[in-house]
Amino acid sequence: MISEFLKITVAAAAAAITLTSCGNRVMLMKSTTEAEADTIELGGSYVEREEYKNQDSGEPEQYIEKEITEEFTIDDELTTIDIYNNDYELPAKAVIDDFRTVMQNPELPTGCEITALTQTLNFLGFDVDKVTMCDEYMPVDFNGEYTMDECYIGDPKSYTGFGCSSPVICKAARLFFRIEESDCYPVDLTGTDFQELFYQVEQGRPVIVWATMYLLDTNSEYVYTAKNGEEMWFCLYQHCLTLYGYDLDAGVVYVADPLVGNTTYSLERFEKIYDILGKQAVVICGDAENGLDAEPKSVTKSEPEITTEAEYTESIYEEDTEYITSEDMEVSEENIITE
What we know:
The protein is α+β, with helices and mostly antiparallel strands. The chain has a domain at 86-301: Cysteine proteinases (Cathepsin B, Chain A, Alpha-Beta Complex). The protein has helices at residues 3-9, 49-53, 112-123, 130-137, 166-179, 198-202, 267-276, 309-321, 326-329; strands at residues 17-21, 24-28, 39-42, 45-48, 93-96, 140-141, 152-153, 185-188, 207-212, 220-225, 231-235, 238-247, 252-257, 261-266, 281-285, 299-301. Strands 5, 8, 9, 12, 13, 14, 15 and 16 form an eight-stranded antiparallel beta sheet that branches. The protein has a two-stranded antiparallel sheet with strand order 1-2. A two-stranded antiparallel ribbon has the order 3-4.
């Protein structure tokens, strides 16, 4: 977020700290002086400094781009989804067919989260663009009232936005489905081990996941205490992508990266960064045409390896009998031994 944003939300600090999100550097906690500009940027508009000083601090809504109303604080609905269990054997490779990346630039330079949701919705047949999803469905907070678990913090249309966490993307998705009168719904899989997400992919469901840009190393930094009393923490280089495939033998995952496009990353490296970002993941159930009655999406899979003794015995039997023909079964009189 812009430095002025933090002048308002954080007590004055002498040190300057720089964080980065989606390829953009964010200046935090910069000390302020009376010699600075007479205006401050809030909510996409400029407000005279004296006018701001006279504002009632108990009414921060005027500095929030989209008011946090009931439509953006929909309670989590009771939703269920099959989660991978250890008894299920995944194929070594599974890649969802025809998944296409939506690039976040130039309109949303720090809006990777809503872009990842948009590209996932597009794949499921919903005709909506990233800017519409940003403007009409995602709660945005410019004033430090909330944390990234409740709103997108900053401005996703600028180079100085922070970002949001999985609950915010679920809010945006639920509101979108409600407006569209669709029975589809999001499920927050946060806390799920990374490779257990492969079950969702194998079932034809792409997964929105949190990592970092280009899988850069990161760490969590304390930023400020929001006005609602919650502490705001932020990971350097935070980024959001859609996972749509994996290859265990090659050690790679297939992702739609809003900064890069369709690409592959090291499975081991991705899992490490995913864990650091708090194991955040969201999956969408259903599609635009058939809702929750949708057929599974097409997935290219490798043949499962034989692991059980019964399967091995059956395969040997099939190999032994594969080449037996009707001619092999014929017995001539001269080959019959009689007493």
